[in-house]
Amino acid sequence: MPRISQGQTEEKNVKSIEKALNILLLFSQETTELSHTEISRAMGWSTATTSRLLSTLQNKGFLIRDPSSGKYSLGGVLYFLGQIAKKSADLSQICTPILEHIRDETTETAHVFIRDGIQRICLAQAEGTQSIRQSTKLGTKEPICYGATGIVLLAFQKPEELGVSLSKLKEFCKELNLETLLMKVAAARDQGYWVKKGDKDGSHVGCVAAPIYNSDGSVTSCLGISTPEFRFPDDPSHFVSLIKQGSKEISRQLGYHGSFD
Question: Long-range contacts of range 30-39, CB-CB < 8 Å, 24 or more positions apart?
């Protein structure tokens, strides 16, 4: 009988851990209970493999099984770990290395904005290294009807939230062209980001922004890169790629496991 090497054993263990984690990721706010059969079918595993993994997860407290229905749900250990993760998953701490990476890649300013009602607030920033650069003072508030970051924070609200925000913005910004704003919001939501190069607001700023998803799928912050208008590239595809990848990375670290489409 051929001997199993230490490397093969370690690889097998890693694959088992990956399978166990994939079981946990089947659960969501919409799917709080799953049967043995549903899990086996979803993962494409044999009954024996599924049983072994479910038993291990149950014994460690990651899953609990309802004796009457036979269905599994997430266990108390995950709640305990989630509370710890919630304390450590600070947005400004998570985004700092990503902001610095984008700044170093482009020499331009990268920042994260959060939504506060109909205002956007600069939460964190890695300021560009060029002598003429675009930057925002931390804590600065601006209406979310302006700028790429504002459009993104509007676009990825829930429909009922968007309606409330638009009503308030109409009162706050009397000169607001609601039809134009809605076109931008729809386009940003459709493509998953927004690009702004100058505007009628006279800001002379170029910017690319993309949403950051919270663990529950909501969007209350976004990642952006800003430049003086004269230096904004005619083809911003590199900026778009960096911002989309950065926002995905932050979202994942915040606990989001959904789609980015």
Answer: 32/73, 32/74, 33/66, 33/69, 33/71, 33/72, 33/73, 34/71, 34/72, 34/73, 35/69, 35/70, 35/71, 35/72, 36/70, 36/72, 39/72
Residue 219 CA to residue 196 CA, distance in Å, equals 20
Say which amino acid occupies 212: I
DSSP type of residue 231: G
List Cα–Cα distances, 236 to 201, 225, 242, in angstroms.
Answer: 21, 11, 10
- How many other CB atoms sit within 10 Å of the CB of residue 233? 14
**In terms of C-beta density within 10 A (0-12 exposed, 13-18 middle, 19 or more buried), how is residue 261 classed?**
exposed
Q: Which DSSP string do the residues of 202-219 spell out, in sequence order?
A: ---EEEEEEEEE-TTS-E
φ and ψ at residue 258, rounded to 5 degrees = -90, -165
Decide: residue 143, CB within 10 A, 0-12 exposed, 13-18 middle, 19+ buried.
Answer: middle
- pLDDT, one tens digit per residue, over 227-236 is 999 999 999 9
Which run of H or of E encompasses 113? Answer: strand 109-116
With a CB cutoff of 8 Å and minimum separation 6, the contacts of 89 are 253, 254, 255
- Give CA–CA dist 205/197, Å, rounded: 6
Alpha helix ranges (H) inside 25-90:
36-43, 47-59, 76-88
C-alpha dist (Å) from residue 223 to 134, 140, 245, 255: 15, 16, 10, 16
| pLDDT reading at 154 higher than 70 | yes
pLDDT (tens digit per residue) in 6-29:
555 667 778 889 999 999 999 988
Write out the two tokens for 96: 């700092």
pTM given for the model = 0.68
